[in-house]
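Input record (Table S2, row 445):
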Amino acid sequence: MNTEIPVASGAQANTGHLDEFNTTPLAFLHRVYRECGEIGQFDLGGLRTVLLVGPQAHEAFFRAADEQLSAAQAYQMMVPVFGEGIQYGAPPEIERQQLKMQVQGLKHERMVNYAAVIEQETAQFLQDWPDEGEFDIYDAFTRLTLKTSTHCLLGSEFRRQLTAEFAELYHALEDGLAPSSISDPFQDAERFRARDRARERLETLISERVRQRRQAGVWEHDMLQVYMDSTYSDGRKLSDHEITGMVIWFMFAGHHTSSNTTAWTLLEIARNPEYEARLYAEIDALFDDSEALTLKGLRDIPLLDGFIREALRMHPPLNAITRRVMSDWHYQGYTVPAGSNVMVCPHISHKLPEYFPSPDEFNPERPVAQTPFVEIPFGGGRHKCIGNGFAILQVKAILSTLLHRYRFDLAAPADSYREIMPALILRPSDPCILSYRRRHRRTGV
Ligand code: HEM
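Output record (protoporphyrin IX containing FE complex):
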């Protein structure tokens, strides 16, 4: 028996649901779920897209083989950004080996160094702060995590000399991810030419750094060193083009996702002051006499961990996790035809009341969901995020440094801080201002 997949209402004659998806993607996906239930379809300018909701459907999605549901085919707009031959632009076996190289750079012994780098950058970020003031958390954390990421990725020298130019090139690459790049990322338009020029310049900068480092014979504790030292199974080393692609891939996967999570977590800390005394006590206990933050401490901060986890539940950064259907895909009596996309949305899953009672309430002590594949901020299955440990480390290192020194309060009515998703990553609305005041630790807060 083949059951018809329910269709979302409101399709326009030529473009289907594309305009609504591009303008208010999250509200649109929630509407599709409300109308259609566990499985529902819509039309993105001729591309049939099927939204799947609930643990069973998610498990089928995340566990499917790449030959059946392909991530690479769904994310082809990333190919000119990362470069041909990298991740989704590489044959699956090469992609797998490149992924292993990324994992290599996120091992425990390297994390120790990253924790120190992030703490150092955060302390520098705070050095000119007066006793009290206001700041825009979205903007500030976007800039701070660009510095921490560049530092961990490319080392202290690159960070000192080149962060400003790197930031400019990176923004040009981001601009190349306009919605129109989904249908044709290679089209002839100025923003795509600017994207290609930025990638070329980045390759020149990074190749120069690689050359200097090889010539000087120095060895550094950063990701660049991992890429320089890595070899494929046939003994071949990464080319400069591939090293540049690995750097860009790391940035795109980890930068905005981590900075937005930092912003949401601090916002929720300010919104929920009833936890503040316990939270500050927990954080102060982490700092020894010399005020250095240890990796051990970063592993065990239960209430801050709870805030981060709950922030990731309420405001998951990535909400259009997509695969291309390579041959007709059968699920529960439905057939999704080859050539369609299938999509999973953590924001919908994380609000299902049967798994998350009172889902709109922020509760940093909420018990862990017992059902697999419902709490999915980092995805699941074969393409599950490999950077989650680094991301959590980064958010904790930044926030514990901040909270040890300052306390934070809302600077506008609580309901004026809204969710927006302009470029397929969920973020707080503009402006997103919090006030801060230096803490007097003797009194706890
Ligand atoms: C809070 C921060 C982060 C969130 C919420 C997040 C979320 C995700 C999600 C949902 C996926 C699955 C995508 C899919 O199935 O199509 C993913 C994959 C991935 N993430 Fe993250 N991520 C974060 C931080 C990072 C960081 C810091 C890095 C790098 C160090 C990273 C590297 C990756 C990579 C390489 C993949 C692809 C894995 C594969 O295709 O097998 N992520 N991430």
